[in-house]
């Protein structure tokens, strides 16, 4: 429960609550993972609260391109608190004070991460994108990334 509350606080807080990283996005790995370079050091960032289609999954390349268009090569701020089991920093990415994690949800580029699906605020953004048939929701039967990962 504590980790859930922390994740929600980090996702919706502005800069200043968690540790902060300011740097340039040097690589967009997929629709929810980037590499940010600060002072010559590269950091892998897994965007908190969202889950993008896998790269080889339908809409995976589109999701990656959408994130690259928003922040590829740009200077961003990342609020993070911890690392995941893959040694990636879990964080919320901001560009010009815009929460990119939420922008991706709003535009239908990603799902709410399955551990966060009970979060009403996040689900509100996902549901609005679904209703408007934005991004991956234009497809008749999009498959959640966690389902895809189980079979591939």
Q: In total, how many domains does the architecture comprise?
A: 1
Q: Structural class, please? A: alpha+beta
Which overall shape is indicated by the principal axes computed on the Cα atoms? Answer: globular
Give the termini separation.
Answer: 30 Å
Number of helices: 5
Return the string of H and E elements.
HEEEEHEEEHEHH
CATH architecture: Beta Barrel
Number of strands: 8
Largest sheet: number of strands, sense, barrel closure: 5 strands, mixed, barrel
Short recap of the structure:
InterPro entries: SNase_OB-fold_sf, Staphylococal_nuclease_OB-fold, Thermonucl_AS. This protein has helices spanning 2-12, 60-71, 100-106, 120-131, 145-151, and strands spanning 19-30, 33-38, 41-47, 50-51, 75-83, 89-95, 98-99, 111-112.
Question: How would you describe this structure in keywords?
Answer:
single chain; OB fold (Dihydrolipoamide Acetyltransferase, E2P); 5 helices; 31% strand; globular; disordered N terminus; nuclease; SNase_OB-fold_sf
Describe this protein's structure.
This protein has 152 residues and is of the alpha+beta class. The chain has one domain: OB fold (Dihydrolipoamide Acetyltransferase, E2P) (Beta Barrel). Helix content is 32%, strand content 31%. The protein has 5 helices and 8 strands; from the N terminus they run H-E-E-E-E-H-E-E-E-H-E-H-H. The strands form 2 sheets. It has a 5-stranded mixed beta barrel. A hairpin with a 2-residue loop joins strand 1 and strand 2. The longest helix has 12 residues. The protein is globular. The chain starts with a helix and ends with a helix. The N terminus is likely disordered.
């Amino acid at each position: 429960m504590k980790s859930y509350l922390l994740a929600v606080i980090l996702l919706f807080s502005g800069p200043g609550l968690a540790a902060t990283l300011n740097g340039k996005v040097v690589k967009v790995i997929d629709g929810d993972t980037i590499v940010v370079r600060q002072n010559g050091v590269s950091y892998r960032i897994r965007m908190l609260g969202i889950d993008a289609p896998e790269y080889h999954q339908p809409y995976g390349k589109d999701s990656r391109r959408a994130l690259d268009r928003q922040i590829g090569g740009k200077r961003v701020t990342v609020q993070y608190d911890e690392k995941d089991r893959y040694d990636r920093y879990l964080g919320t990415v901001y560009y010009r004070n815009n929460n990119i994690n939420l922008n991706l949800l709003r535009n239908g580029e990603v799902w709410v991460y399955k551990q966060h699906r009970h979060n009403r605020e996040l689900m509100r953004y996902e549901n609005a994108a679904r209703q408007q048939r934005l991004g991956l929701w234009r497809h008749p039967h999009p498959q959640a990334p966690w389902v895809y990962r189980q079979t591939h």
